[in-house]
Write a structure and sequence with these properties.
Four copies of one chain form a homotetramer. Chain A is an alpha/beta fold. Chain A has ten helices and ten strands. In chain A, helix 2 links the parallel strand 3 and strand 4. The longest helix of chain A has 17 residues. Chain A starts with a helix and ends in a 5-residue tail after the last helix.
């Protein structure tokens, strides 16, 4: 087939994120490896809102089989009047959740100045979609040794996505995990359009692990389980999903968050798909 | 979860393609049923090019487990200088392939005047993406009793897609199968962007069967198997794929066609996914 | 500058709609010529609803300087439950309006079967955006000698737009006028996104006249005058706008229709722009 | 007309960039005012490449009637291997060009740390499209008293665009000028699709000045003059264009840069349009 031809569509200047060998690398986050046969499930609330909310979620997703805990401390919001995250307080709560559950932590870093503190409190740094082309930030995290979860911009082409990965890789940090999280299209019902073909393309041309965010990608909790299954079937190395003990009370993104029970049920279905593609969860 | 909320996003004027009961209907095509536990695999060449090409393909896809044979007789091409299909001659060859293999036939009808002859030679009428809003054609096929494969327009919203289904249903023909085949986005590497979230949405709000075309949806044969798997995992009732004995010599769409061996291999993987979602192929 | 380079981006198979000479051809509609120094203003209601509505509009737009009268008889509507147009009755009313005002008539034809009757009652046939790739229809109007107003599909590339023009030209009808009417993008406030760069591109690579529809292109009457001005400044050979004596009571597209007074005012502004680009209205 | 209705489509949370009074504010940049009857023309090279290149361009555009000089010092490039700008050296050259020609300077700032130095050397800070949702950067420039040129993201909705303006305004800096520079669509011929309807919308709902970048918006120098005219006709308060003494040798964006003579010619045409809309250049 034409995996080779696909590579010819990418600029030859992109070199660090494209490798001859088809083997996916593995990126270690705490004691867990992304990119191996064992699929990654990152779960947790959109925003860290309180000690109770975070700990209850962490315990529950751990029990259901999640491998990494997510939780927003610094939140990029469209309007300055929206909840902007608890900041350092949230980072401390994430540490507490890690201490209790053993789950490594991934959380977003929004600016060069915050890299140091976010690194201290987390196991993996997330670069959000809005910052995918924030080059000073990419260069800065490229100088760390932390694993980086790089989310695709809303309207970034595959080439631009890899171009952003190059900024990190070129600084010496090879621990980059790519994340598809939905692109802008004309369809008004879903929040974004989850583009799973990008997963299939990236798995054929790059050695970097690829995961999918069906929560932001769809905007509706009822669409998360089917799209999570589809992501794994398309070859994704894992998923990142929003989970909240009480989505209707969430300070951000409640509509797209699974509750604890829904997450647990979804995990059952994902195990079947993992087996079908020769992997495990 | 919020399957109910999703319905509130659809105009209340859309009524025939939205049903209270969540049960998918089944649409009979020849001896095969689309929409039941047994997943549908429609396979065959983009265009019928010759007796040998068609029969070789038909025998092979039948052996590999396809349930319905596709093949273009009247082809909608961007330029008038491109191969426009063999027309009635192709219809006769499709009949011959059916006689030999027992596979029912689906083929595209492009105009009101051709409905009668295409109906005579086929088991299911396809309305192509470019004709999704050709209302006289929709009304005309709504007056037949043939099963209709309605492809989504390149940039049709879900509401417009269902609006087109309404045109057929309103005339009394309830045998409508919806087909996602990729939408227009900014991404240049893939031919279209296959939108699998539309499958998840449609399965939650409509009773009509939904299938997916990963060949047109991606434009690359190497992307067809992973996206076919993803489609089934997302809840699709089946797939329609282009298969050609020698894709590099195809008169149309060779780049996205599987060869006979690739199709056979793909079917193995699909069987695993089918099992994972509690269905069969 | 790089008008020549722009041509290299178009498939060499497109040949009839691309001409060496940069001179725009002129297409005669009744006594009026589209493509000359005198800019074209096509105005009238979205749908012909009644004798009074049509005649009042026709008289008024004539007085304000319109050159051609538009009015829908056969309407392509997203849902089968919406007003579908008055059909032949509307065609007769358009004839009456022409007889009284002298304005030539353009109206949409939606199917091959209707071409003959629509031709009898009008001076120019419109192919709507939804039918831009209805190839049997394009071939059929290519066999007439009527001027054709070919609207760009919602998500048609420039190359596909010209490809559709080729279908008409190849049959021998060279009287094709291209019309940009807005494309699908992610922006929800406007109904479509009016793409004026396509006007600039087409004027550099094709000899066919180009006009713009700011009514459908924006969906808001308050945006029509500024975008009509912009269209003429970008090099458009004219505009087509929806005008209704009482937009809030219109059976279709009221939100985007100018009332008679607003149209008259807009014409004043357009005369200034016409002068600025060395043309007249 | 429905300027009022347009406002109802915007979230009521957006308040500082939407004002009751329809009067545009004026933003002073050096001795020049953006937003008044006199239209703004910002011109200069994509990147400052050398003393000669910059000074020659500055003198020439000044002679042709430009009001502000642009020139990139810190360049956001898709790949880390591309020319990244001369940095502080470029800022010093811009100062020299200002000293000689009297033209005030606008240049992009890409990170919080650079705000102070860029402010020292320029009269207006540009926030580029890729940083439109870099909230720490928006807050930081909101704390300055410099005029801000805020470019719309490639796929930012109008509401998100205004949301980003709110971040600056909320910090106390009211000197915000909005700039449309093209959005991502499916069309491959132009680099982006210049969305002039956003100009018409913004002029109806916001008091902030709006300008247009036809260079990035189209990607082709031959499309710049017609789209610049169209922008002014649509109600834009000005344009920002790339000019280079020798575009074919430019280190970035040569294809879309006007040469000095082309810029001068374009200015003649713009004067006519300005007059037609009751303004001056």
């Amino acid at each position: 087939m034409n995996g080779k031809s696909l590579k010819t569509k990418i600029s030859p200047e992109i070199r660090l994120s494209i490798r001859e060998s088809q083997d996916s690398i593995r990126v270690k986050v705490g004691g867990f490896e992304i990119g191996g046969d064992n699929l990654t499930v990152i779960a947790g609330p959109c925003s860290v809102e309180s000690r109770e909310q975070l700990l209850e979620t962490a315990r529950s997703v751990k029990r259901s089989g999640a491998s990494i805990l997510r939780g927003g401390a610094f939140k990029p919001r469209t309007l300055p009047y929206s909840f902007q995250g608890l900041g350092v307080e949230a980072l401390e709560l994430l540490q507490e959740a890690k201490a209790e559950t053993g789950l490594p932590i991934v959380t977003e870093v929004m600016s060069v100045e915050d890299v140091e503190i976010v690194e201290r409190f987390s196991d993996m740094l997330q670069i959000g979609a809005r910052n995918m082309q924030n080059y000073p930030l990419l260069k800065r995290v490229g100088k760390t040794r932390s694993p980086i979860l790089l989310k695709r911009g809303f309207s970034a082409t595959i080439e631009e996505f890899l171009g952003s990965a190059e900024y990190i890789l070129k600084e010496g940090n090879w621990r980059v995990v790519l994340c598809e999280r939905g692109i802008r299209t004309f369809e008004p019902i879903t929040r974004f359009t989850l583009d799973l073909s990008v997963v299939a393309v990236l798995k054929q041309i790059s050695h970097l692990p690829v995961i999918v965010d069906p929560s932001h990608g769809t905007g509706w909790s009822s669409l998360v389980p089917p799209m999570a299954k589809a992501a794994l079937a398309a070859g994704s190395d894992g998923i990142i999903v929003e989970v909240h003990p009480c989505p209707e009370k969430a300070l951000s993104d409640g509509q797209q968050s699974l509750n604890l029970e829904e997450f647990s049920q979804m995990m059952q279905g994902l195990k079947e798909i993992a087996k079908a593609v020769g992997r495990t969860i």
